[in-house]
Design brief:
Blueprint: H1 9-19, H2 23-46, E1 53-57, H3 59-62, E2 71-79, H4 84-99, E3 104-109, E4 113-119, E5 122-131, H5 145-156, H6 160-172, H7 187-197, H8 200-207, E6 214-216, E7 230-232, H9 248-263, H10 280-290, E8 293-300, H11 306-326, E9 331-338, E10 342-349, E11 357-364, H12 368-379, E12 384-390, E13 393-399, H13 405-412, H14 420-428, E14 430-434, H15 444-453
Parallel strand pairs: 2-5, 6-7
Antiparallel strand pairs: 1-2, 3-4, 4-5, 8-10, 8-14, 9-10, 11-13, 12-13
Helix pairs in contact: 1-6, 2-4, 5-7, 6-7, 6-8, 7-8
């Protein structure tokens, strides 16, 4: 850790000045939390539902939220003996009663239903949960969250600014967010890192030496088997890895971000410059410079939440890449983008066109039965350019079935493993666009994606 010579205090101050909630902002949040807690209690009373308690959880409840983010998590807890059906029915009834005062409401579903509302400009999740005795006795995944709150709140006191710095630093490096689209660091994980290492600086210094298999066990729960790159044993439930959602690439991106920052600590590591949508002329210039082939499989965006959609898109991305490789197209890289109406799986190939001729190598000549069958089959076949012996094996030059990637994808895409909703959407219709045709996609967010792609 010799490279950890310190981080200028004036830099930390400059970052905190931009990300730390102001006193009026904090007061407004506390007021809204109190209003929502009161409305939940009133809703339960009005509906004649007893045993309901309200708990504010998440970063807003722990003082570790970034200025400008207006997310509040309201947990509506029911006694442990409540049945799953009752929890869902009664919990959603209370949530819907509260939502009568909201500007917008939307049903969402994790392990069980919850309600997302917009209330006085705040993004609020109203989540029914069971009030269990400990996190090891949970009846649904969300039941752990109140225990996270109880663990973090007393231990993070006085270190809230360190968490804010680490969260913003992760944002600047593109690794913050544990949703399945991002596969990065969750807010809770960030807090545990600060609790474990003691500060933003010490976390960054330690991360420079991380390797896959890094394990952090704050409460010394002992040997627990997890296969992920980073294992942070949940202090409230030792069976769970808090870093389970973190992908290997995001783990490594964070290590790289930390190393580069310590070489030259600058504000830009916290606030990455915004990419601008590419103009047609810029796209064409970049395509000309790269001299590779760009393809995009474009289809209607399935009507599902991102945590359902993105795992299916990543699955499709891998399947399409494997299909192209199987037919001798060399894939340089792949990516996915999704907007409100259109979704695209984007691929860069060394070339999207291959020669008509394909070399087909058979068995050695001395393996008589198989060799003769192979020779007979291809000697008499149409679309064979010629045959010869090379390195003791029969070789025939045959006509390639799919000389272009477009033909291959148009014909075989539906055979790929796509995931249920993506498969349905692709089955309804898709388009393969190539190189300059990509300019037909005008969505500004897609053009921003392209800015980081080519």
């Amino acid at each position: 850790m010799e490279m950890c010579t310190g981080i200028p205090e004036e830099l930390k101050f400059a970052v905190l000045e931009r990300i730390k909630p102001t006193e009026p902002e904090r007061e407004k949040l506390f007021k809204i939390q109190e209003e929502l807690a009161s409305k939940v209690k009133m809703a339960a009373e009005k509906l004649g539902i007893s045993g309901v308690l309200v708990k504010m959880v998440g970063s807003a409840a722990r003082g570790t939220w970034l200025s400008g983010t207006h997310d509040i998590d309201v947990f509506i807890s029911f006694p442990e003996e409540t049945s799953r059906k009752e929890l869902e029915t009664l919990g959603m009834a209370v949530a819907r009663e509260v939502a009568r005062h909201a500007e917008h409401a939307e049903d969402r579903h994790a392990e069980h239903p919850y309600l997302n509302i917009t209330y006085k400009g705040f993004d609020v999740d109203l989540v029914p949960c069971f009030r269990v005795a400990s996190a090891s006795q949970i009846k649904s995944a969300v039941d752990r969250t109140p225990f996270h709150n109880d663990f973090v709140k007393p231990r993070i006191k006085g270190h809230e600014d360190e968490v804010l710095l680490l969260k913003q630093f992760m944002r600047g490096g593109g690794v913050y967010g544990s949703e399945l689209k991002t596969q990065g660091f969750s807010g809770y994980l960030t807090e545990l890192l600060v609790i474990h290492y003691g500060s933003f600086k010490d976390t960054v210094c330690a991360a420079c030496s991380w390797k896959p298999g890094e394990k952090i066990d704050i409460m010394q729960h002992g040997e627990i088997k997890h296969e992920e790159p980073l294992v942070v044993v949940d202090p409230t439930d030792p069976r769970r890895n808090v870093a389970a959602a973190l992908s290997l690439d995001k783990f490594c991106m964070f290590i790289d971000h930390c190393r580069e920052f310590l070489k030259s600590p600058e504000l830009s590591f916290f606030f990455s410059p915004s990419l601008l949508p590419l103009e047609d002329s810029e796209i064409l210039e970049k395509l000309e410079n790269r001299k590779s082939s760009q393809l995009a499989v474009v289809f209607k965006t399935p009507d599902v939440v991102e945590d359902v959609l993105f795992p299916q898109l990543y699955k499709m991305e891998q399947a399409v890449s494997a299909l192209l490789n199987e037919y001798d197209f060399t894939v340089i890289k792949t990516g996915v983008w999704s907007g409100k109406t259109e979704t695209a799986v984007v691929l860069e190939l060394i070339s999207s066109t291959l020669p008509n001729v394909k070399k087909h190598v058979g068995p050695p000549v001395w393996v008589k039965v198989h060799a003769e069958k192979f020779k007979e089959k291809y000697q008499a076949a149409d679309d064979v350019f010629g045959g010869y012996i090379e390195n003791g094996k029969y070789v025939f030059e045959i006509r390639r079935k799919y000389p272009t990637a477009r033909e291959l994808l148009e014909d075989r895409l539906m055979n790929c493993s796509l995931g249920k909703q993506v498969h349905q959407s692709v089955n309804e219709g898709f388009e393969i666009i190539e190189n300059a045709e990509i300019c037909r996609l005008k969505n500004p967010n897609f053009r921003i994606f392209l800015s980081g792609w080519i």
